[in-house]
Prior knowledge:
This protein has one helix spanning 2-20, and strands at 44-51, 53-59, 68-73, 79-90, 95-104, 110-114, 124-135, 142-148. The chain has a single domain (39-148), classed as C-terminal carbohydrate-binding module (Jelly Rolls, Sandwich), CATH 2.60.120.
Amino acid sequence: xxxxxxxxxxxxxxxxVAMAAPSNGFGFKxxxxxxxxxxxxxxxxxxxxxxxxxxxxVRVHSGDKLDKLKIELQVGARxxxxxxxxxxxxxxxxxxxxxxxxxxxxxxxxxxxxxNGNGRARKLTSITVIGRGSSMGFRPGASFKLLGL
Length: 149
């Protein structure tokens, strides 16, 4: 009986030691990563659109108050786009014009714009992208995504 107790105690003790210092056989410990991001660092899709020449107005269906925008070119069809400015329309009817003056291409496919000018995040209702876009694909114009943070 004492031998069974001794063997059981040894087995439990060695498995506890193995769990305390795991090894994968290569002499280093595995790295544990947490791939979840906090809510405040996650970009959310606000709208999509296509810009040929002139302007494209898209409605924003987000209940969140935003303080940053990201314009991301969808480069699947070798597209390029030049964004002159953005006109933001807020829930209270006021507008804000932001000069961007940025060319987007496959090499540099996005731009981040800070819209929190006075320290308060505000709710957007629509965004007008003013500029021009071109594509070598089937459809004229450049497709883009608007993301908010």
